[in-house]
């Protein structure tokens, strides 16, 4: 691409430089760990907002920002925000990095989309509440990161509140998930008395002390002072000595950062922080810029790598549809893999071979929708009225490419669905096929139940709400949803199916992609059957390609 660009200068830096300055990541966490607070703190540090406080409007914090985080409600369905893009210039750098924070819908809107988002990022920040340690939703999301080989940076949040000992939390991480934590910074002061961060140098030697000062309600960036280890010792005494000793202990057990091991998903750099007080937030941004990978090449269905310098291509990772019946609003979000995107360019939809015009390209964060004119690998762009697009689909120009489909993730909620009126059966079948192909929900069948009452399988119950609302709104079919008492699925095969079907609390189905799934009422049932029938095929379903 030329360097000329007259008005908006689409490529003032050229494609390689645009790619190199980008970092695309998601935060994986359990509800309440502080994801919204951290997102806001990042925006504050990137100077997108001048004061934090939109989330909770605490005393001393003002509600200044537009209501990004407030989930939009349309017919009872929350529309999650999608991607926040901001520039960040690290201290001493002359490059503005472009940070894409892709939202992982959590809380009540936890769904298969939450997992799919992780196919669109190059790194993840695992946000942990210092008092609670690893929690279930974090663990599930971490497993997806591990499966996909996504490097993980760990942030231990809420250090301003009483919690566990710093090294205890690290032990929990290595023992429970086999990820070796390698702190880059250690807290000075116990949980609840957060004074600053010790920066760990080579071999765990304390290289610097970053002392933070609280601001009223944590509304503005916490002033930082940089001290030498000797100055830190003189100033903080015991808490500094403790942190320095802990750092040495960690080195003795090999818990020092190693870039290769981090990129391989074996170790995780750790930062202690307080998102609410804005402590450690700058350090997280610096870590993302310094250590997280820039967008890289991606293998296509044949295993051939498409490099970021190749002509434009992108993968759709999320589709939001039917939220606004008046407009038949249907937004498809794509992550750009290669080349430069310019709004208005006509791309090819790999799955149908049809052209797709990109006149309406947007970035979406909460209620804010901004038109995108140019975008680069790592960026997330929303396409309006993208009726043919479904998660996993590929768009490209010039050089044909098709990326592998996004895997289906392990469902944990199951329900039967039927049309209330038998006369609507045809529309009902059509709608089910449509919603299935869009990846709104997984559809399971078996002979015993027949086609009139398929079983829907979901990662989060909100997916069922979307199905029933769209059935009614778009297909004009009133449906009846009945939950089934299963909580767990395992991949099995045709040989094991008859024996499994004979077991109490178990039912076997075939998913549309042909995978045979056995559903279990609970983990004890599964454990019992595994013990009694060791020859049956029962594989965990983190993700199935
Ligand atoms: P989420 O998006 O991950 O669900 O979490 P969110 O940011 O909404 O934070 C959940 C709660 O944790 C909030 O408190 C928030 O203020 C608090 N919190 C987040 N980060 C920190 C931190 O670093 N330190 C402390 N002490 N608290 C933090 P809440 O009780 O839900 O609301 P509020 O009563 O505090 O307004």
Summary of the model, kept short:
This protein has 545 residues and is α+β, with helices and mostly antiparallel strands. The chain contains 13 helices and 34 strands.
CATH top level label of the largest domain = Alpha Beta
What small molecules does the structure contain? guanosine-5',3'-tetraphosphate
Spatial order of strands in the largest sheet: 20-19-25-16-17-24-21-22
Question: What is the C-alpha radius of gyration, as a whole number of Å?
Answer: 25 Å
Helix content percent band = 10-25%
Question: Can you walk through the features of this model?
Answer:
The structure is a single chain. With about 550 residues, this protein is of the alpha+beta class. The strands form 8 sheets. An 8-stranded antiparallel sheet has the order 20-19-25-16-17-24-21-22, with no helix packed on it. Strands 4-5-1-6-7-13-8 form a 7-stranded mixed sheet, sandwiched between helices. The model is unreliable at about 1-10 and about 55-80 (pLDDT under 50). The protein is globular. It folds into 3 domains: about 15-55 and about 75-290, P-loop containing nucleotide triphosphate hydrolases (Rossmann fold); about 310-395, Translation factors (Elongation Factor Tu (Ef-tu), domain 3), CATH 2.40.30; about 415-540, Alpha-Beta Plaits (2-Layer Sandwich), CATH 3.30.70.3280. It has 13 helices and 34 strands. The chain binds guanosine-5',3'-tetraphosphate. This is Peptide chain release factor 3. It is found in: Cytoplasm. Its main location: cytoplasm. Keywords: Cytoplasm, GTP-binding, Nucleotide-binding, Protein biosynthesis.
